[in-house]
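Q&A log
Question type: sequence-to-structure
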Amino acid sequence: MFDDLDATLQAMLADAAAPADLRAADVGFDTPDQDYKPTQATMNLFLHEVAENRALRDEARVIERTGDTYTSRLPSLRVDCSYLVTAWSAKTGGLRAQEEHHLLGRALIWLSRFPVIDDRFLQGALKTPAQPYPLAATVAQTNEGQPMAHFWSALGVPPRPAFSLTVTITVDPFDQVEQFSAVQSVTTQSASLLEPSLAGRVLDHTLAPVPGATVTVAGSGEQRITDGEGGFAFADLPFGSYSLAVQVSGQPAQQVAVTYAPGSQIHNVILPGP
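Response status: OK
Response body:
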């Protein structure tokens, strides 16, 4: 992932439209400490910080539809990858500073052209599969309260001119995806307080209606045959707790306990699968 981002930045600096002297320079990603002494003109991009971009954090699950199926997954993680960009020359004296300043300025101008990194530069896992969000890049912006003198001191080298480059990439640390079918139809069932009835529908395990099923209220002898929509209704029953026996030809009877009340008159029965 990070190596693919390195390769992407290297492709940007090597692009045919980039300044010729910038293309001619070597590109390195090593730590620019006291032992770093390139033997030719080099642009160094040191990845020194990786942090979640909290401003882009999204707590909502991602819902996507493909045909008649929905998938649900946890949101992606947006990560800021911060590089310290420096120029290094193998020359001596004033010529070294002149070349380093020249290359650094060229790099600053060139990279500033891409607030969003072009897809043509993307490499490896940043290209395939495609990133869900464009790769935003910010140049020469530093966080408050982070003096660079401390940074160079930690590396054990004198301070040198540099600028920051931060690229925001997307990573998916979660591989658990839930799938569920799209809603095909909506059926409403009504109840009346003036003329109440213990009613419902008999459905199979795919939620398709089961016509011709026999529904019996245990202990009362009341019995109904479900209609074409799997519906049944028992009027004139007092409110209370009942057991419904559902019999479908060729299958064992299913017993379902229900509580019949003014606010609980509809009781659908879903039969188990094979």
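Response note: The two ends are 46 Å apart (CA to CA).
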